[in-house]
């Protein structure tokens, strides 16, 4: 099972975070840091003032509890020696190095140049490409986890079409195309 750092942009919005947490049950080991948590929580509270810090703290605690060996620590000393287009992203690369993560799952691919990351035996992957690769490696298990995820949505529940539309809105268009071929199983 591969280790994957989930960048803050993948942990917000909630449907995307929940989707990747559900896949983590069987298909990969998610990794993040307290700094990544702080970043996604800050963005949620900025754009969703109706939510509280207490609610987000609970989500964070549940993620840490159910994410297995998810929390990366001891990476901070690496940050000053790293060079990325956006210096604020160095903590993500430092966490990937410390965790020996093969991928950093992020929408911000230009912030993580392939040439820089290859020196650390990791690479940046778009969330859609990451999800599609998980599907390709274990299609039956992937579809079963997606079905369980959709069925767990109760507030409000989602029919398959609505569920797939939500994933597409979150940027998972390739993954949705793959899942449409398994529509009756979701």
What does it look like?
The chain has helices at 8-11, 14-24, 34-47, 53-66, 90-99, 114-118, 127-137, 139-152, 160-169, 173-180; strands at 3-6, 29-31, 103-105, 123-125. The chain is α/β, with parallel strands linked by helices and 186 residues long. The protein has two domains: 3-126, 5'-nuclease (Rossmann fold); 131-185, no CATH class. β3, α6 (114-118) and β4 (123-125) form a beta-alpha-beta unit. The two termini are 24 Å apart.
Task: Give a brief description.
It is built from 10 helices and 4 strands, in the order βααβαααβαβαααα.
Secondary structure blueprint with pairings:
Blueprint: E1 3-6, H1 8-11, H2 14-24, E2 29-31, H3 34-47, H4 53-66, H5 90-99, E3 103-105, H6 114-118, E4 123-125, H7 127-137, H8 139-152, H9 160-169, H10 173-180
Parallel strand pairs: 1-2, 1-3, 3-4
Helix pairs in contact: 2-8, 3-4, 7-8, 7-10, 9-10
CATH superfamily of the largest domain: 5'-nuclease
Order of helices and strands: EHHEHHHEHEHHHH
CATH topology of the largest domain, by name, is Rossmann fold
- The residue-averaged pLDDT reads 93
Q: How many domains would you count in the coordinates?
A: 2
CATH architecture of the largest domain: 3-Layer(aba) Sandwich
Strand content: 5-15%
Strand order in space, largest sheet: 2-1-3-4
Number of continuous helical runs: 10
Structural class: alpha/beta
> How many extended strands?
4
Helix content: 40-55%
Please compute the radius of gyration using only Cα atoms.
16 Å
CATH class group of the largest domain: Alpha Beta
Query: Which segments are poorly predicted (pLDDT under 50) over 5 or more consecutive residues?
Result: none
Taking the sheet with the most strands, its summary is: 4 strands, parallel
Give the quaternary arrangement of the chains: single chain
- Indicate the overall shape: globular
Q: Please report the distance between the alpha carbons of the first and last residues.
A: 24 Å
